[in-house]
Amino acid sequence: MLYETDANNNIAAEYTWDALGRPVTMTKGGVTYYYHVNGHGDIVALTDASGNVVAQYQYDAWGNILSKAGALATANPYRYAGYYYDEETGLYYLMARYYDANVGRFITRDTFHGFENEPQSLNQYAYTKNNPVMYVDPNGNYAWIVLSFLSGGANATWQMVWDFYKKYKFNRSAWINKFDWKKFGKLFVTGGLIGIYGRGITSYMTKSQIAKAGQFAWDVTYAAKEYILLQVAGGDPITWSGLVDAIWNKAKGYLDFLKKLK
């Protein structure tokens, strides 16, 4: 959310965000306030430009507000894990669904039905696999996993692709014979997994999952190579968005794999 309006369509509050989707500032009544976030992503305080605390919060592991203080403690809508908090209902709005911290559950079912061999995933109301200390669920469903993977992978490889493109342009032979496709695939999958889980990803992966990631890398490489060579053959520019779109179908095919890692 970038701004809120009143009944007369006047802007009542404006917000800015960082690259990770965390709130940075709230401007209200012509005054800008700054969010303070802990390692879990919880909003623990809000200060003005002089460093005066205008809102302060404490939560339990599930997001129940244990205490709040300050002139803007109620007016500020962003709280636990950076989620939007509805004061009237006491629920957190997680885009796809509402989350009730009192019971540690969503109030509606997930569209993902779960895995037969993973009992916790079969509870479609469960929040973060019953592990709110380690995980958050910014969108209320699993769709964000693929988007995070694509963004992380493309960010990890784009400079490599762009540098090669600037040097060889539409030289098809160079793309086929000189571009390091194996390195590209490894970088893309590694960047994608880091985009989802952070740099400790390998500590959570089993041998079979690592093998699956290797196959994923090969398929991602094939999709990217196909896109780039078609662009080169047609004399069309290679773009970041085009690269992501080309890999999207392959990534969708691995959605279950990514979910199981979660």
UniProtKB/TrEMBL annotation:
<feature type="domain" description="Teneurin-like YD-shell">
    <location>
        <begin position="12"/>
        <end position="133"/>
    </location>
</feature>
<dbReference type="Pfam" id="PF25023">
    <property type="entry name" value="TEN_YD-shell"/>
</dbReference>
<dbReference type="InterPro" id="IPR056823">
    <property type="entry name" value="TEN-like_YD-shell"/>
</dbReference>
<dbReference type="InterPro" id="IPR050708">
    <property type="entry name" value="T6SS_VgrG/RHS"/>
</dbReference>
<keyword id="KW-0677">Repeat</keyword>
<protein>
    <submittedName>
        <fullName>RHS repeat-associated core domain-containing protein</fullName>
    </submittedName>
</protein>
<dbReference type="InterPro" id="IPR022385">
    <property type="entry name" value="Rhs_assc_core"/>
</dbReference>
